[in-house]
């Protein structure tokens, strides 16, 4: 029934590698896998240029864990400082804060057994809102307006069709490698 729960906290890339929608999507899908998700749903709008969303049924996060996940270099994936025991796809604490610094980033999560979920919205690096959220156990991350306030970076993005092709490849690779889980994607 999936791997043991590992918190969806961060991945090993520095923010400069969040260069296009597919790189952000890769980090989010890897976090869902690390959280023990058996179902991952990806939604893209205009190849991820307008928005991308990843929803999973993994272990979820508490409000405190969500706040930690959005801090640079903070992670709960490293067991007892023993780096040789890392069994996750990422652990350095860079992916989520890096993506949140260059987009409108909405993180919603509910741990299994919790009565309600929690939501944090970060708009290009600034906390815009937080509060209770209604969702099933797991995590949902929405990335909108990627590089909206970084026009020099946004102008180097490719067409929606090209970005969609790159995002589709990011979804297909783990889907083929993990026949025990379901990864779906929707493009609108």
Can you put this structure into words, describing what you see?
The protein has helices at residues 21-34, 63-69, 95-100, 151-154, 160-177; strands spanning 39-45, 51-56, 104-110, 117-123, 126-133, 138-144, 182-187. The protein has 188 residues and is of the alpha+beta class. The longest helix has 18 residues, at 160-177. It is globular.
The topology string of helices and strands comes to HEEHHEEEEHHE
Uncertain regions spanning at least 5 consecutive residues: 6-16
State the strand order across the main sheet. Answer: 5-4-3-6-2-1-7
State the helix count: 5
- Main β-sheet: number of strands, strand sense, barrel status? 7 strands, mixed
Shape: globular
How many strands? 7
What Rg, in angstroms, do the CA atoms define? 15 Å
Percent range of helical residues? 25-40%
Question: How would you summarize what this structure contains?
Answer:
By secondary structure, this protein is of the alpha+beta class. 26% of the residues lie in helices and 26% in strands. The N and C termini lie far apart (31 Å).
What are the main properties of this structure?
alpha+beta, 26% strand, 5 helices
Q: What topology emerges from the helices and strands here?
A:
Layout: H1 21-34, E1 39-45, E2 51-56, H2 63-69, H3 95-100, E3 104-110, E4 117-123, E5 126-133, E6 138-144, H4 151-154, H5 160-177, E7 182-187
Parallel strand pairs: 1-7
Antiparallel strand pairs: 1-2, 2-6, 3-4, 3-6, 4-5
């Amino acid at each position: 029934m999936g791997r043991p729960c590992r918190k969806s906290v961060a991945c090993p890339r520095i923010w400069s590698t969040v260069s296009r929608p597919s790189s952000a999507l890769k980090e989010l899908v890897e976090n869902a896998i690390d959280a023990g998700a058996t179902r991952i749903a990806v939604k893209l709008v205009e190849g991820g240029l307008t928005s991308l969303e990843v929803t999973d049924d993994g272990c979820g996060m508490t409000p405190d864990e969500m706040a930690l996940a959005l801090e640079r270099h903070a992670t709960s994936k490293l067991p007892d400082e023993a780096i040789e025991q890392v069994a996750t796809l990422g652990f350095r604490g860079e992916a989520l804060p890096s993506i949140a610094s260059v987009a409108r980033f909405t993180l919603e999560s509910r741990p299994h057994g919790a009565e309600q979920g929690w939501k944090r919205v970060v708009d290009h690096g600034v906390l815009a809102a937080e509060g209770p959220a209604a969702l099933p156990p797991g995590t949902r991350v929405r990335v909108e307006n990627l590089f909206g306030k970084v026009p020099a970076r946004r102008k180097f993005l490719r067409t929606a069709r090209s970005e969609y092709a790159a995002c589709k490849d990011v979804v297909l690779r783990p889907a083929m490698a993990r026949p025990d889980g379901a990864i779906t994607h929707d493009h609108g």
